[in-house]
Amino acid sequence: MKKIITISFILFQLQFVVAQDIQFTQFYSAPMYLNPAFAGANACSKITLIYRNQWPGISSVYKSQLLSIDHGIKNSNVGIGLTFGRDEAGAGDLTTTIINPVISYQAKINKTSAIRFGLQPGFGFKKVNVNNLVFGDQIYRGGNVSTVESLGQKKSYFDLAVGAIYINSNYWAGISANHLTVPNESFYNNPFNKLPIKYSVHAGAKFDLSKDEKERRDKKYISPAINYRAEGKYDQIDIGFYFSKHIFTTGLWYRGIPGLKSYKKGYANNDAIAIILGIQTERISIGYSYDLTISNLSTVSKGAHEITMSFQLCNPKKRKTKLVLISCPKF
Questions:
Q1: How would you class 15 by CB atoms within 10 Å of its CB: exposed for 0-12, middle for 13-18, buried for 19 or more?
Q2: The pTM is what?
Q3: Looking at the predicted structure, is the pLDDT value of residue 7 above 60?
């Protein structure tokens, strides 16, 4: 009876859980998802695909896909884009789909620096397969019976995000805010179950380690970067660096806030250490990352795998543009 009461209490509490957003280790491969001001920031139109399989050691956990398309309007300071995202979680096939059009504008400061602003209205759609869930009343009545819970299976909402980035030829810094409408995503129509505003602050720099080298294949760069995210009472930091030579890139990242944040006694805010490998040609970028879990799930999660692919629809070196281009990594 004690076990039944405990399980029922947990299931009852699920209706009050506030969801968190999709996260990507290679967040610069999803620039508009990170900050809408990135829309159209390249010299060429770009298409990006991302697939993430998180914690494969735990069955039916998190699988995420993202498709984004962006374009800088010729002879203009305006960029446009569109992002489609899908996240699948749990045995109940809880699915979240996002459709976000984006528009941005670049205000040039001088030849090497500018400020970009972005606006992202959009829609979110959630659905769940109730037939795959087990509720407390079913356990109480011995199982193999229908639930009396009144749970909707679909939910849709309007969403809004804004962002800004300062860029120059050597470094960048940006801030973005998502879910400004604080949408209600509850299947129970619970007025307290709203998606909290997510804030992100990100910055980085790119340093040339081989200034005397003239051949592109001999050039070496290092790019340290940081991304702080906060949503509701939860927050974390991604901090690391990329090393690039010719078409190859490697990266090492840490996710968490060690020693400063612990949301529950005995549970440190440590998530993962990630390794990133990438290949980038004039038009194509392919990246792979593996997250080594260092939280209390490390013995069962089996980390996370992420694959990214980006295609530029022209050769950026042959495309004339009036934009100040961002030097941040592509992975």
A1: middle
A2: 0.86
A3: no
